[in-house]
Specification:
Elements: H1 2-18, E1 20-25, H2 33-48, E2 53-58, H3 66-74, E3 80-84, H4 107-126, E4 130-137, E5 142-145, E6 159-162, H5 165-173, E7 177-180, H6 186-191, E8 197-200, H7 202-207, E9 216-218, E10 226-232, H8 233-237, H9 241-275, E11 279-280, H10 285-305, H11 308-318
Helix pairs in contact: 2-9, 4-11
Bound molecules: pyroglutamic acid (PCA).
Pyroglutamic acid is lined by residues 84, 138, 141, 163, 183, 200-201, 203-204, 225.
Length: 319
């Protein structure tokens, strides 16, 4: 009996020596499809490794605020994390092309753009000891306001919620007043009058119960921005080969599944906005013309500031 107990505890110790627990910060809430996809990713890895790698997700910026997640993975405060890819456009504009209006507006375009971005940003991230695992798009971005927007002039003077530098530039060119607000704080920002309009996906509109604070939504489908999951390369390289393979396989599955979830939500979440009383209207030709003109200006600015890496992404995308 005594031997059996000793043997059992020795087993526990030897398992514990190999098992790894990872904390994973993510920026968006638990009802967000990205978070649900990542939760499945963690489950897949736990199953495939028999618990050798156990990832705990800390959603909605609860472990690190969104702007600090990438740095936390780089500094090995955490081994893995998710963030909005175009937040890195202040480092290199190659990261931000998916948030430029009217460059890639459909899932097919978005896929082509990701294929063009992936090798370039893999190299850029490697310089910082980071490795991309997978990237998943949000549904195309639409316009939330009180009342219908007939032309770009109607955006003039509105306090406009922004989530990155490109959206801030967009709002400024439109004559609106941009305010940076994380997705989790959208309801609060509208409730307190900090903002009165926004551009985001139907997913984020539903997740933040947009019908509580705006009356109208227009699927202007202006861009298809992505989230990315990155891992610290040194930490990944320290894993057993089988565990590494489990992570890579789960990542590939998460990318495929995430793109499918996104496409399904583009329709279902737009329908949910309407079911909850939001007026969903097609943008007028005049509105689209005005928005495209802003996109044109922004792309010229982008090109004027783009690195060789960034230009190579645009060239690969256009070919
Ligand atoms: N939702 C996130 C990013 C893009 C989107 O659709 C947000 O609004 O912050």
């Amino acid at each position: 009996m005594k031997h059996a107990i000793l043997f059992a505890s020795a087993l526990t110790v030897s398992t514990a020596a190999h098992a790894e627990s990872w904390d994973m910060p993510t920026p968006y809430g638990d009802t967000t499809f990205h978070t649900q996809n990542i939760s499945q990713f963690a489950d897949d890895i736990r199953t495939a490794t028999d618990g050798e790698l156990d990832i705990t997700i800390h959603s909605a910026g609860s472990l690190f605020p969104h702007p600090e997640i990438k740095g936390a993975v780089r500094n090995r405060q955490v081994p893995i994390g998710e963030f909005f890819l175009s937040l890195l456009s202040n480092e290199d504009l190659a990261y931000g092309l998916d948030s430029q209006p009217f460059v890639a507006t459909s899932y097919d375009d978005a896929k082509k753009l990701w294929d063009a971005q992936r090798p370039v940003i893999t190299e850029l991230l490697a310089e910082q000891g980071l490795m991309p695992l997978f990237s998943v798009p949000w549904p195309a971005q639409g316009l939330y306001t009180n009342g219908e927007i007939a032309t770009v002039d109607d955006l003039n003077g509105l306090r406009f919620r922004a989530y990155n530098a490109a959206l801030e530039e967009f709002a400024t060119i439109a004559g609106a007043a941009p305010v940076q607000i994380e997705a989790s704080n959208i309801p609060q920002a509208f409730a307190t009058g900090q903002v009165e309009a926004m551009i985001t996906s139907p997913s984020t509109g539903v997740n933040s119960t947009a019908w509580d604070f705006v009356s109208h939504y227009s699927p202007i489908n202006a861009w298809v921005p992505k989230n990315i999951v990155v891992v610290n390369k040194r930490v990944f390289d320290g894993l057993d080969a089988e565990v590494q393979a489990a992570v890579t396989e789960a990542a590939a599955a998460a990318e495929t599944r995430g793109w499918e979830m996104s496409a399904a939500e583009a329709d279902s979440k737009t329908a949910e906005l309407a079911e909850n009383g939001i007026t969903v209207y097609e943008p007028s030709a005049e509105l689209i013309d005005g928005l495209q003109a802003i996109g044109q200006t922004m792309l010229e600015n982008w090109k004027a500031n783009a690195s060789d890496s960034a230009i190579s992404v645009l060239d690969a995308y256009n070919n």
